[in-house]
Amino acid sequence: MIGGNTARHEPYATTPTPLVVLTHSPTLTDLGSVALNPQARIAHGEIDLLLDDLRDSVGPGTSILIEAGPALITRALELHAIDDLYLSRSDLLGDPNAPAYDLANLLHNYQLVEEREASGGSFRRYLLAPTTS
Fold this sequence. Notes:
The protein has 133 residues and is α/β, with parallel strands linked by helices. Helix content is 23%, strand content 26%.
């Protein structure tokens, strides 16, 4: 699953698995190279309902991969819908009009398990922390 902005800016003309684009766009033709992908389909609505539908369609034990920007990832983290998060951050300046988000607060239920610094950014892996009863 990817968001509409990710679809517009990343090369998704081919993918090894089915691709769902969560977007407000009415057609795939508005979404760059993803329009060429025969495995792509558009979904509209809320991420929680879409994830429920995807879980039902792929069956238990099958991973659902998400690549998205801050808005979609923020909502998925709020729902605890991500159990294994690979986060790459770039030192490049992004959209100055993008909404701010509190990453530390969003990740308070996650444990940092891997961290690498690289030229121009960083890579971190977080796992959803086990809940205590």
